[in-house]
Amino acid sequence: VFGSAPTDVMGRSIGVLITSLGGRRLNPRSPGARIGLGKGQEAVGRRNDGTPVPLEVSVSVTGIGQRKLYAAIIRDVTERKRTEEVLRIRLRAIESATNGILITDAHTVDN
After folding, report:
1. Cα separations (Å) of 13 from 20, 35, 106?
2. How far apart, in whole angstroms, are the C-alpha atoms of residue 42 and residue 55?
3. Which of 7, 26, 61, 79 to pair with 101, CA 20 to 30 A apart?
4. Are 33 and 15 in contact (CB under 8 A)?
5. 3-class DSSP state for residue 83?
6. Cα–chain center distance at 111
7. pLDDT digits (tens, 9 = 90+) for 52-106
8. DSSP letter, residue 82
9. Any idea which of 9-23, 38-52, 55-69 has the lowest mean pLDDT?
10. CA 90, CA 25: separation in Å to the nearest integer?
C-alpha cells in the first residue's frame, strides 16, 4: 500500500497512510485518529518514501455483535488530479484568447 507491505499497515491507525483528510491533519500515533464515514472524501496520504499522494477515501462501518468494524477504500487520484490541472490550464487559455489559440502536446504526435 503506497510502497508499504500490507502487513505493515493492517490493524494500524488509518493515520499511518493518511496525513490529512478534508483539510484536517491526522496524527498517525493517536489511536483516536478517525475519519468520518462517507464516500469520496479528499485526503492526502504518504507513500512509504514520505512523499505526499492525493487520495479519495470512502469509509463504511458494520457491526458484529458489540464490535464495530471499519472498512476504508483508499484510491490514489494522482493521475486524475494531473488531468484536472491540464484541463484547467486549457480552459484558462481558451477563456483569455481574443483572436485564436493553438494548444500542442510535446508528448503526443498527431497524425
Report:
1. 13, 10, 43
2. 6
3. 79
4. yes
5. helix
6. 35
7. 899 988 878 888 888 887 777 888 999 999 999 999 998 888 888 777 767 777 7
8. H
9. 9-23
10. 32
CA triplet 48, 49, 54: central angle to 5 degrees? 70
Cell 514520505 locates to: 50
The three three-digit cell numbers of residue 67, written as one number: 464490535
Distances (CA, A) of 7 to 12, 16, 109: 10, 12, 44
Per-residue DSSP letter, 78: H
What ranges in 1-111 are assigned the alpha helix state H? 6-9, 78-96
Q: For residue 23, what pLDDT is reported?
A: 62
Dihedral through CA 48, CA 18, CA 84, CA 108, nearest 10? 10
Residue type, 108: T
The amino acid present at 70, given as its one-letter code, is Y
Strand order in the sheet with 38-46: 24-25, 18-21, 38-46, 52-64, 67-76
Predicted confidence band of residue 31 (pLDDT cuts 50, 70, 90)? very low
